[in-house]
Each structure stands twice: as C-alpha cells, then as structure tokens.
Amino acid sequence: MVRPWRVAIVGGGITGLAAAVRFRDRAPEGTEVTVYEQSGRLGGKLFTGELAGGPVEFGAESFLMRDPAGGESAAVTLARRLGLAEAIVHPTVGQAALLVDGTLRPVPGGTLVGVPGDLEKVAAVAPPAADADRDAGHPLLADGEDTSVGELVRKRLGDAVVERLVDPMLGGVYAGRADDLSLVTTMPALARAARAEHTLVGAVRAAQAAAPRAPGAPVFGTLAGGLSTLVEAAATASGATILRGAAVRELRRTPSGWRLTVGPTRDAEHVEADAVLLAVPARPAARLLAAAAPEAADTVGALDYASVALITLALPGPALPELSGFLVPAGEGLTIKASTFFTTKWGHLRRPDGLALVRASVGRYGDETSLQLTDDDLADAVHRELSAVLGAPLPTPVARHVQRWGGALPQYTPGHTARVTAVRAALRAAYPTLAVAGAGYDGVGIPVCVRSGETAAEEIITALEGSAA
C-alpha cells in the first residue's frame, strides 16, 4: 500500500494558504498537508482589524481584478473557489490625486504605473523633457536585458515624469524608488513591450493594448467582510493541519524526503515530510535553504526589504475631497508617502454616524527615519500633515491605530527575475520536492502571491507523482 504524501508548507500567509488549497484540489486523496506559521495569526499582510467599532484593513487593502493577460486574476479565482465571489466589492470613488507643489492634482489618465502613454495628458503635472522619447531606430530593451524603471523613464522622458509620477506610484506599492526597482519584475508587461517598441510611449500603449479592459470595468476589488475572510476561508477549505506559533528553525535532506526542526531549541520537534514549500520572506527562506542549497540561499538572502507603517485615523465628520486618496512625491518633504480615504473610496465602509476612516502610509526604502517615531508621534504627524494638505484642520480623531510592518516590501533590483529563475532551476534539478513561493520571488499583490503559491504546489505535485511512478 502506498503511503499518503506528507507536505509541509512553511508560512501561513496567503501564498501558503493558496498552495494548501491547491494541494487539497489536486493532490491524491489522503495527502497530509501541514502549514507551519511562526506567528499566532494567519494571513501575513492580509489583516482586517477593528477601529472605532468598525472593520478596517491594517494591511493589504484590495486586489487587482484582472491578470496581466486581461483575464480573471488569481485572487478573484480563489475567492470564487472559496465561495466568496458575491462578497467582492469595488471602489465607489476611483479618482486619486498627486501632491504637486503642495497642491492636490488629479492623477493623469492613460499611464501605466505612472509611465505615460500620452505626453499631453501628463504635461500639466509632470512636463516631459523637450526632446522626449525620440525614435532611435531600435527597441528600448534588448532580449534578456533589464534596467531600473527610473533609468529608462529618465532617459526617455526626463526627471519630472519620474519624480512626480512614476516614483510616487511605485513608492505607494513598493515603498521603493523608481531608480532602484527592476522594470522586468515591477512592470513586466512594459518590459515585454519595450523589447519590440522604439519609444516609451509606444511601449506603454502596446502593453495596455495587450491587456484591454472593458470601459467601466473595475480595476480593484476587496471583500465586504474584509480580506481576513479570504484567509479564513482558505485555511478552512484547504483541510490542512494549521499550526500557529510553530517556528521552523531548520530544514535537512533525508534519504526519503525532508526533516523539519520545529519549535524552541530546548523542546524542538523533528518532523518528516516528502515535500516542502517555503512560503516565507526571503531571509527566513535563505536560513532554511542554507544546509541543502547554500548557493540558492545566498542569492535568496540578498533580497532587501523596506519597512512601513500604516496609520489609520477615525475622524468625526471631516471635510474630505471626493477622492480615493493621494500620493506624495518624495520631493514634497512630507512624512506621509500616500493616503487613502477609506470611507470615501469604499462605499460599503461608509457609516451612518459620519465617522471617516483615513489611512496614511509612512516609510520609504533607504529613508526610514520617520519609523523611529513613537506611535503617538507618528499619528500626530500624520494628522498634522493631512490637515496641511487638505487646507483645513482635521477634527481630533476619536480613535487611531498604528500598524508597523517591518521588512514588509521586497526591493527588486534589476536582474531580480533572472536570479529567481536561476534559483528555481537549481532547486528543481537537485531537489524537485522543495519549492519557494511568495512576494520575495514573484512580485507584490494578492493575485501574484496566490498564483505563486498555486504554481509551486503544482510543481511539487508533479515531482511527487514522478517519484511514485
């Protein structure tokens, strides 16, 4: 009789839980899946909390509705699989703003993460260079080439477009700078188009045409009950054994599979598994890879992360503009790098008592001084800066919450995708039942993490089926 597979998933964020659901759906009946989560809470950066008697996201706020090819995103597909499709809601106010010279201006249309597909539309906010984007007679990128987003956009369109448009857009997503972030990893559709197009505007238009969006179709969605409902539903549907407070400290190869060392040094437990999926950030993954795959561990462990803090204020009856929020270029000199007017943006969060929820993001890679402030000082600074941006003192908050995410956002330098491909190829060749997945490899955002976990699960299933043949 064939013994059922034993699969260990290290990490109980949405990547690991999506993988667990995929094992449930695709692995043979009887497969034993165990999820090891070091903290006492599942979900990672998906964390729905409560403030002033109502729900609020203390981590990720929403997910993209479409995948890069224009189809349904992996997050939507997972929500549907978990019976949550009817709970998906969309922003009721979609217009965001940029803070330019101390004034809020609407984010120009027709851009791809701030990179314009029409120079006239952005001229009022970020005037392109006088000789912008001339056709040099060859594609912008050679096959296999990567560059930073900032380097490409500065060269083609000038500094103002980077600093007033692209940098705040990327900063809002990655807490990083356009001059440091890989084009291939952060904007893969644009990178693909740049290998054929001779101008940056042409590449933006080609990338947008490759994934057309129906007029009026929503770009973002969230769940009416909060994103933690996605986490809870995935944990339940997976049928996996979920162990919280279970730190995996070591991973070793055995003749028949893998041995995990779990728990404190003085009371460690050794667990055997046929396959292991590491769905944790790069540095803890590197520590676990060190014994079996030291070269892969060195590459994985070199990935750096930015830390951020999210400060949410519950304000009684503030006068807020009809905006979803605003982004702040680094040159504006504020502590805040972005703000979301939750109860304006999301109609399902609006409250009959008129209480408004406003969230601000603080912390940029390489400049995290503001994160040294106490929670009270951070909240005071955010309240003060929001009042200045909006041009009138905001009311005193009735409640406030500071959520710190240390080492939260991967910083993908040029060549990241090629390095990850090499790591995975080496692991696949040497240890096909060991896989890595998550934001540290494939990009940020709920759909990317879901797809990363599902893909890793499929590869492990294929490897186990091959070993049993």
From TrEMBL:
Main EC class of this protein? oxidoreductase
Q: Which UniProt keywords apply?
A: Cytoplasm, FAD, Flavoprotein, Heme biosynthesis, Oxidoreductase
Instruction: Give the matching Gene3D superfamilies.
Output: FAD/NAD(P)-binding domain, protoporphyrinogen ix oxidase, domain 3, Protoporphyrinogen oxidase, mitochondrial, domain 2
Every copy of the Amine oxidase domain together lies at 14-461
Q: Which organism is it from?
A: Micromonospora chalcea
Concerning SUPFAM superfamilies, the annotation shows:
FAD-linked reductases, C-terminal domain, FAD/NAD(P)-binding domain
Q: Which pathway does it operate in?
A: Porphyrin-containing compound metabolism; protoheme biosynthesis
What is the role of the protein in this entry?
Involved in coproporphyrin-dependent heme b biosynthesis. Catalyzes the oxidation of coproporphyrinogen III to coproporphyrin III.
Q: Where in the cell is it found?
A: Cytoplasm
Cofactor(s) this protein requires: FAD
Record protein name field: Coproporphyrinogen III oxidase
Q: Which gene encodes it?
A: hemG
Family designation: Belongs to the protoporphyrinogen/coproporphyrinogen oxidase family. Coproporphyrinogen III oxidase subfamily.
What is this enzyme's catalytic activity, as reactions?
Answer: coproporphyrinogen III + 3 O2 = coproporphyrin III + 3 H2O2
Q: What is its EC number?
A: 1.3.3.15
Highest taxon of the lineage: Bacteria
